[in-house]
Amino acid sequence: MPEERTQDSEDSKGRTGPEDLRGSVATFDRVEEGATAIATLSSKNHEVFESRVRDRSHVCPACGQASVHRFLYRKNGCDILRCEQCGLGRAETMGFDPESYYTSDYFSGERPDGYADYIGTENILRREFAGTVEFIRKFRASGRLLDVGCAYGFFLHEAKRFFDVSGIELAEDAAEHCRRSGLNVFTGQADETLLGRLGTTDVIVLLDVIEHLPSPRDTIALLVNHLDPGGIIVITTGDFGSLYSRVAGAHWRLMTPPQHLWFFSQASMQAMATSLGLEVEHLDHPWKVVPLSLISFQLTRMSGLRPKRIAISNRLGLPVNLFDAMRVVLRKPSR
Length: 335
Ligand SMILES: [Zn+2]
Hints:
Number of strands: 14
Bound molecules: zinc ion
């Protein structure tokens, strides 16, 4: 069970306590008014103290400042903290190695926090990605496009009708799948060497990828260097400031460390963009057609059962919007 901070309301329930004790503890008679207040205060202080001890200072990759990070709760053995400056959430993990994590298991339902059956839902995903391409073309109609974390290349196949496309993917199997289907895809991380080989580009997309990156700020900064002036970066990720995220806390569907390491809010996205010299040209919470198999996979996981693959629902999709995921277009100023 994840630990969660005690609710304030639970403190006030204890207020009748000193009243009952009055007969047995003489001193309470003289300080009855104060005792109630002190009893409430000290338990409150203790709670605040406990959580303050777990607060710590970090340099935030979104706002770029050394700031206090407030401890929120623990999930999957990771401390979840929030930058007091900009609201970015971070998962503190011990020895998480992305290279050994994102294997074919991740995309085929072998991992409870991965995809149910990524390849099996190609049709639905491609329809969804075709919509994303249409959206991107409102900001940039053509040119060179780079997909960072392109998985099996479904988005790239839709984008290549209008753009000169290439991709980067960490999972070897997925990258190989892309190359076999004729796409120009490199295996590895978006680092200086790989980006150097690719040259500059007009559009860079990171679809549900930024929350997985070990150092999102360093990666975005590198990508900005490989973006032509006037070019755009399109990012989709969860919205940590959304109502669903705030109400659900540790139980939010996207609160899945160590797979997800960063939880952006609109403010933290804005802070990162500004501090890297980018302009936020657009931000919305789009509707999305989600494969029924993924919905049932996630619901089963949330109910605590081990998810199973369900073949029948791979072809069906439902339009879903929980307004807890955002789509952002960042523009590099044209000098
Ligand atoms: Zn911050």
